[in-house]
C-alpha cells in the first residue's frame, strides 16, 4: 500500500486540477537531442525490444510517416504519443500518462494520434507496440501507461526524466 | 474443536482472492475473453491468471468485449527482467486480438513472476481497475447507438 499511495495521491491531486494548469504547452519541437544520444546507448537495455527503433532498420526506412515519427522522437527529449491533448485527453490511459509526466514538472511534447491517422497506425509499427499512449524518452521507447506507472513507482522513470531534463536546458 | 482459520480468512491472499472472484463474477464471459484466456494459458502456463473484461467502464454496447485488463503471473517472466520485455511477451501472445483489425481496443497488462506477485499480495496490494474513460476516440459503437 505504501508504494501505491503516492501515485493515488498524485492522480487524485491532478484530477482535481486538470492536466494543464501547471504547465504551458510544449514548445520543444525545434529542440534537438544532444547528450540524449549517448544516454540512449547507455540505457538501451531497458527497452528490451529497442532494436525496432534503429535508424538502420531497413523495413520501412523510406516511409514518410516513419521518417516523420523518427524526427519527432529525435527532436523531443520527452515525447508522448497519446489520444487527445494535455488539455483534453480522450482516453483514461493517455490521461494517466499525462499526469505522471506532469508530476515531474517538465515541458514534455505530445502528439495527438487522433488528429493524424498515419501517425496513429505508423507509431504502432514504429514501436512494435499495439496500443496508445506510447512514451519516448531521449529517443528510447519506454512503453505505455502500465509501464509508466510501474517505473514511476520504482523511481526508474524519474531517473530517466532527470537525464532528459538535463538535455532540455 | 474445529477453530475457524481466521488468520487464513483475513490474510492478504484470501482478501485478494475474494476481490478477484467478485470481479470475475460480475462480468459475463464471451468468446474474446475465452480466447485471451486460452492463449495466455498456452503461452505462459500461469500460476495465476485474470482476464478482466473492463468494457462496461466505457461507452460501448452492453456485453462488448473491447477493453481488457490481464494479470499474468508466470515463471516464464523470469528472464524478462524489464517491464517492457514482459509486456512485449504478452502483446505477442495476443497479437491477433490487439491488432488494428482485431477485437480488442484496449489492453492493460500486469505481468510478473510468482515471487513478485507474492510480495505484492503480502503487502496487501491489489490490481485495481483501469482509469476511467475520457470519452474515447469515436472508433467504437456507442452504448446507446442504434444501428439500422
Key descriptive features of the protein:
heterodimer, A: 169 residues, alpha+beta, Glutaredoxin, four-stranded mixed sheet, 4 strands, 49% helix, 10% strand, disordered N terminus, B: 148 residues, GMP Synthetase, Chain A, domain 3, 6 helices, 3 strands, 39% helix, globular, metal ion binding (chain A)
Describe this structure in words.
The complex is a heterodimer of chains A (169) and B (148). Chain A has 169 residues and is of the alpha+beta class. Chain A has one domain: 3-Layer(aba) Sandwich (Glutaredoxin). Helix content of chain A is 49%, strand content 10%. A four-stranded mixed beta sheet of chain A has the order 2-1-3-4, sandwiched between helices. In chain A, helix 1 crosses helix 5 and helix 4 (64-75) crosses helix 6 (117-127). Chain A is globular. Chain B is an alpha+beta fold. Chain B has a domain at 29-113: 2-Layer Sandwich (GMP Synthetase, Chain A, domain 3), CATH 3.30.300. Chain B has helices spanning 6-9, 12-26, 31-44, 83-93, 95-98, 114-122, and strands spanning 48-53, 67-73, 106-112. Chain B has a three-stranded mixed beta sheet with strand order 1-2-3. Chain B is globular and about 45 Å long. Chain B starts with 5 loop residues before the first helix and ends in a 26-residue tail after the last helix. The mean pLDDT of chain B is 85. The chains are: A alpha+beta (169), B alpha+beta (148). At the A-B interface, helix 3, helix 5, strand 4 and helix 7 of A face helix 4 and strand 3 of B. Chain A: Pfam families: Glutaredoxin (PF00462). Chain A: Residues 31-65 are annotated as: Disordered. Chain A: Residues 78-142 form the Glutaredoxin domain.
Amino acid at each position: 500500500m505504501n508504494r501505491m499511495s503516492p501515485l493515488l495521491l498524485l492522480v487524485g491531486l491532478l484530477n482535481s486540477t486538470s492536466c494543464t494548469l501547471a504547465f504551458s504547452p510544449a514548445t520543444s519541437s525545434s529542440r534537438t537531442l544532444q547528450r540524449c544520444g549517448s544516454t540512449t546507448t547507455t540505457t538501451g537495455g531497458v527497452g528490451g525490444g529497442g532494436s525496432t527503433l534503429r535508424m538502420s532498420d531497413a523495413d520501412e526506412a523510406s516511409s514518410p510517416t516513419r521518417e516523420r515519427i523518427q524526427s519527432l522522437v529525435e527532436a523531443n527529449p520527452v515525447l508522448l504519443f497519446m489520444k487527445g491533448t494535455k488539455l483534453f485527453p480522450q482516453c483514461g490511459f493517455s490521461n494517466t500518462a499525462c499526469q505522471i509526466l506532469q508530476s515531474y514538472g517538465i515541458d514534455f511534447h505530445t502528439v495527438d494520434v487522433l488528429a493524424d491517422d498515419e501517425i496513429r497506425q505508423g507509431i504502432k509499427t514504429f514501436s512494435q507496440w499495439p496500443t496508445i499512449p506510447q512514451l519516448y524518452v531521449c529517443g528510447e521507447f519506454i512503453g505505455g501507461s502500465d509501464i509508466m506507472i510501474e517505473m514511476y513507482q520504482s523511481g526508474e522513470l524519474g531517473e530517466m526524466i532527470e537525464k532528459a531534463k538535463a538535455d532540455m536546458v | 474443536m474445529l477453530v475457524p482459520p481466521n488468520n487464513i480468512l483475513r490474510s492478504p491472499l484470501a482478501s485478494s482472492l475474494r476481490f478477484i472472484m467478485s470481479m470475475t463474477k460480475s462480468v459475463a464471459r464471451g468468446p474474446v475473453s475465452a480466447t485471451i484466456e486460452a492463449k495466455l494459458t498456452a503461452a505462459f502456463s500461469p500460476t495465476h491468471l485474470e482476464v478482466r473484461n473492463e468494457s462496461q467502464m466505457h461507452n460501448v454496447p452492453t456485453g462488448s468485449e473491447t477493453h481488457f485488463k490481464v494479470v499474468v503471473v508466470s515463471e516464464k517472466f523470469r528472464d524478462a527482467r524489464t517491464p517492457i520485455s514482459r509486456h512485449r511477451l504478452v502483446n505477442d501472445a495476443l497479437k491477433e486480438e490487439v491488432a488494428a483489425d482485431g477485437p480488442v481496443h484496449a489492453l492493460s497488462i500486469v505481468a510478473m513472476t510468482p515471487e513478485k506477485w507474492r510480495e505484492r499480495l503480502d503487502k496487501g496490494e491489489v490490481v485495481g481497475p483501469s482509469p476511467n474513460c475520457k470519452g474515447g476516440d469515436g472508433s467504437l459503437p456507442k452504448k446507446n447507438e442504434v444501428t439500422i
